[in-house]
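SEVERITY: medium
COMPONENT: batch folding queue
REPORTER: lab tech (J.R.)

DESCRIPTION
The queue accepted two submissions in a row. Attaching both inputs and their returned C-alpha cells so the on-call engineer can compare them side by side.

ATTACHMENT 1
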Amino acid sequence: MENKRVVILGAGESGVGAAKLAKKQGFDVFVSDFGAIAPAYKTSLTDLQIPFEENQHTTDLILNAVEVIKSPGIPDKAFIIQAINELNIPVISEIEFAKRYTNAKTICITGSNGKSTTTMLTYYILKNAGINVGLAGNIGQSFAAQVAEKEYDWYVLEISSFMLDNMYDFKADIAVLLNITPDHLDRYDYKLENYALSKMRIAQNQTANDAFIYCADDAETLKMLERLKVAAKKYPFSIHKKVEMGAYIENQTIYINTNLNQEFTMSINDLALQGKHNIYNSMASGIVAKVLELRNESIRESMGNFKNIEHRLEFVAKISDVTYINDSKATNINSTWYALESVNTDIVLIMGGVDKGNDYTMLKDLVKSKVKAIICLGKDNKRIHEAFEEDVEVIVNTFSAAEAVQVAYHLAKKGSTVLLSPACASFDLFKNYEDRGNQFKAAVKEL
C-alpha cells in the first residue's frame, strides 16, 4: 500500500503508535488532534518526520485519506467523523490496523469492570510461565507501536467497547468477556442493549478453534449469548454453579477444567486478589492459562503473588486507625458497587465527577448499610445528593482532592475506611483518573 494516505485522528498513545506503524509500512501518514498534543508525543512525531496538526481538524487534509484510524475517545457524533462517513472512507481502530501486521496470537479482554486487573493478571501469569508476551490495548504501550518495534508470540490486550466499535476483520484467538453492566451509555443512545452488542464484538470472527471465556453469572452476557451465535469453544466461569468446562467454586476452592490436561485447583484464600469481583477476575485469567496448557504450579504461583494495579482498590495508608483506599479507577456505578462490597468496615465515601448518565439505585442498599458519610468531589453533585440524601446523614461538597481528604479525616471514626471510589469520570477537576488518584494519595500522605 505504498504512499496511500492514512489519516490518524487523535495523537495520544494509540494514535502515535498507529502513526509509527503506518510510517513503517510505507503509508503517507497525517495525524490530526482536535486538542493539544502532549510534548512527548509531538517529539515522537517530529522525530519520525510525520506531519501533524493540533487544536483543529483541517477537513482538506483529512478527507483525502483511503482509511482513517481513530482514537477510541472520539465519538461517532463528532463532526469530522460524520464528514468522513459521508464520503464512505473506512474508519478503523488502532487495534484493527495493528493486527494486520503481526502473526502474534491475541488474548482480548473486555467487560464493564475488571478489565485492567484481569489483563494485568493474565499477562503476569503468561510472562512468569516463560511465554514471549506483550501487553497492550487500553493499558501500557500501544499495540501498533509494539507491532512496529517488537516481536511477540502472544499479546494480552485490554479492549474497550469504543475500540470494538471500529474493529471489523480483527479476530481474538482467546476472547474474555467479564461482564456487561451499564457504562458509557451516553455513547450508546442510553440503551444498554447497544452497549451490550458492542461488547459482544469481542467474539466476532472467532472460529471453532478459538476460545470464548465468559461469566455464567452475568445476566446481560447470557441474554446476548441467546441472541448471538458464538462459534468459538465456550468456557464459562461461575461462583454460583458447577460448570463442566470452565471454572467454578466449591468449598472455597476454584476448580478449572479445559479438557486439555489435569484439573486446576486453588483455595480462594491463597489468591493474591481478594474480594468477590477478584475471584471472577482470577477465574477468567486461570481459564486462559489452562487453555494455553500452562503448568498448574506456575499458574498457582502467579495467582498467589500478583500485585494489583494502581488506582484500583489500592491501599494508601492507615492513619489514627482509619484506612485510606484509592479506587480512582472506579469510573462507573458497578466499579463503586464492587468497592463498597469488598470493604468490611464503616465507610466515608468520596465520590462524584462527570456523571455518565448514572443510575445510583444499585448502590442504595450498600450505602445504607455501610456508608456513614458521602463527600462529593466534582463540580456538579446534584444527582448524588438526590440519590442518597435519605440514606446518609452527612453529604458534603468539595472541589479538590486535598479538601475531600481533610473533610474525610474529620468525619472518619476509628476503625473505619475512607474510600475514594467516584463512580464518575474525572475530567471536571482532574486530567484523568490517575491524576485524581495521585492527588488523593498525596493529600492522604500530608495528613
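ATTACHMENT 2
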Amino acid sequence: MKTTHKNLLVAMTVSTLAISGCTSIGKMLDKKPETIATAEKSDAAYYQEATTALDKGYNREAIDALNNIRTFYPTGRYAEQALLDLIYAQYQANDFEAVTASTAEFIRLYPTSQSVDYALYVQGVTNMGGAPKASRLFNLDQAQRDTTYLRLAFQDFQNLLNNYPNSAYAGDAAQRMIAIYNEFAENELVAARWYVKRDALVAAANRAKWVFQYYPTSTGVPEAIAILAYANDNLGLTETANQYKTLLKINYPEYLNQDGSVRLSDTQAKTRGQKLLSAVSFGKLGRANNKTDGYQGQYNGQTRTQVIEQANSLTLPNRNNQ
C-alpha cells in the first residue's frame, strides 16, 4: 500500500481527534480501562479459545471468541490476527455478508499489512459467490443471475494483481478473473440462445455480436460466431453470413454441417457451462497468518506468469454502453 495512503489515514485520524478536543480524548482514555475490565479472559486466552475452536471446526464459537478480542482488546497484540481469523471463520460459517464487512474493515484498519492480499482475495471469492443471502456459486448457474457481484469480484482480484503481483493468491485470483470474464460472455450467450429459440434473430445476433466484440478471448467466441452466421443466414443476409461461416470453417469447423449450414448444439453449451463452474473452484481457502497460511493454489496447464499476464489483459465493458 502506498505511503501517501497511510499518511492520509493518519492525518484524518489526527484531525478527528483535534476537532473532538482534549476533553473527548480524556473520556476515551478514561473508558478504556473500564472496558477492558469487563473482559472475562485475557486476550491470549480468548485467542487460544478461538484457535482451538477453529481447529475443531466450531466456527461460531471461534467467532464469539474473536469478537471478544476485538471488543475488549481493539489495539492489543492479537487484534490484527483476530480480524483475519474472523474473516476465515465467518466464511466457513457461510456468513458471507459479515465476511465482506470484515474484509473491508481489515483493509481500512491495516492498509500496510502484509495480509491485505488475503483480505482482497477472500473478498473477491465471497463476491464471486453472489449476493450474500442468495443461492451460492455451486447451486446456481452464474450466467443466469445478476452479474453485479461478479463485477465486484473481478475488481477485487484486479486490485490484488495490481497491488500484490507476487502474492501467493495472485495466480488463483488471475484464474478467477478469467473465469468471470468467460461468465460474462456466457451471460450474453444465454440471452442469444433464448432469442434463437424464439426466432428473434436480430436480437440473437446483437447479443452474439456483443460477445464477439467485447469478449474476444472468451470461451464463448466460437458459439457467438456460429449464432451470428446462423442469424444472418436466416435473415437473408447471405454475404455477412458467409463471412462468419468462413471464420467457422477455418477456426471452429465443428459448428458447420457437411452441407455448410450452421450447427448450433445445446450439448456444446452445457459442456462449456460445466467447465466454467469448475474453473472457479481453484485452490483451498485457508487461515491467513503473517508467516504461513493454509492456501494451496492449482493451475491448469499454464504457468503462474502466463495466467497472470492473461488476466491483466482482460477488461469488462461497461454494460450501459451496449
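NOTES FROM REPORTER
The longest helix spans residues 3-37.
No errors were logged for either attachment.
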